[in-house]
Design brief:
With 86 residues, the chain is α+β, with helices and mostly antiparallel strands. Helices cover 45% and strands 12% of the residues. A hairpin with a 2-residue loop joins strand 2 and strand 3. Helix 2 packs across helix 3.
Length: 86
C-alpha cells in the first residue's frame, strides 16, 4: 500500500474503534471481536452487526482500516433496529 493511501485510510486500534462507536473502553471492542471470532470458528457467517475481522495485526494487536470501521458503522443495525415497513 502506498504511503498516500495509508495516510488517508489509517489503521485504528481497539481504543480508536471504541471511540468511533461512542465507547470509552477498548474492552468493548475486544468483546465484539471475540464474538466475531467465535462465530467464524463455529462456521457461522459474519453478520452486519458483528465487528469485522481485523485488516492487519500490529505487534500482536488487531488493527482495522478506518474505511472498514466506517463501512461497518454505516451498515450496523442499532439498538431497536426495525426492518423497513413493506
Amino acid at each position: 500500500m502506498s504511503d498516500a493511501k495509508a495516510s488517508t485510510d489509517p489503521l485504528l486500534d481497539t481504543l480508536d474503534v471504541a471511540k468511533m462507536i461512542g465507547s470509552e473502553h477498548a474492552a468493548t471492542v475486544r468483546v465484539y471481536l471475540k464474538r466475531t471470532r467465535k462465530r467464524v470458528a463455529d462456521g457461522l457467517p459474519i453478520r452486519p452487526q458483528d465487528l469485522p475481522l481485523p485488516d492487519e495485526t500490529v505487534r500482536r494487536s488487531p488493527a482495522w482500516r478506518q474505511s472498514t470501521i466506517e463501512r461497518w458503522i454505516a451498515n450496523r443495525p442499532g439498538r431497536g433496529h426495525r426492518p423497513a415497513e413493506p
